[in-house]
Amino acid sequence: MMAVRRIVPLAIMTVLVVAACGQASGSGGEAQGTDAAKVVPFAVFLDGLRSASYADYAGRPGTRVRSQQAFAQMQRFLLARYADVRVIRSYASGGAVFDCTRQTAPLAHPPEPTGIPAGAAGTSEAAVQAQACPHGSVPVRRMTLSDLVRFPSLSQYLGKGPGGPGQLPPTGTS
Predict the structure, then answer these.
(1) Edge-to-edge strands of the sheet including 96-102?
(2) What is the C-alpha to C-alpha distance for residues 153 and 66, in angstroms, rounded to an integer?
(3) Which of 2, 26, 130, 142 is the most exposed place for a label (fewest CB within 10 A)?
(4) Structure pTM?
(5) Taking 70 as the threshold, does the pLDDT of residue 144 lie above it?
(6) Tens digits of per-residue pLDDT, 36-61?
């Protein structure tokens, strides 16, 4: 029993190190693959966003952006959105990337998961997410050009979603 207590923390640390080292970068600052591989560092994401062009997306399946001007408007929107963001860390969950950003104003904290001890086997994804961002930061879903170019224009992306106002469109992954 004592040997198991020594091996389990080592095994957990090994998995975390391997997952952290397995980060991949993709074109346009976006990632592909499994959740662990989807976490492109925020600075790399921004560099890809700045250097992306309409030609990078024009022929891709699912791309519906209608013109180079519409693409440029989407790109400017994202660059303005992330202009002063300070990301502490990023993580992937449910096919999306979340950035832990510094909290600049008092916010109501989401309820903490109850009845789930930290690190328990079978821990829910909600419990993991609640522990993903350090104190003083909040998780914000990373919006990418791939999200936006699925729409003909920025105004259509920002319009009413299929689940009602304020709903993000599906990410295209399950």
Answers:
(1) 87-93, 96-102, 137-141
(2) 7
(3) 2
(4) 0.61
(5) yes
(6) 557 999 999 999 999 999 999 998 99
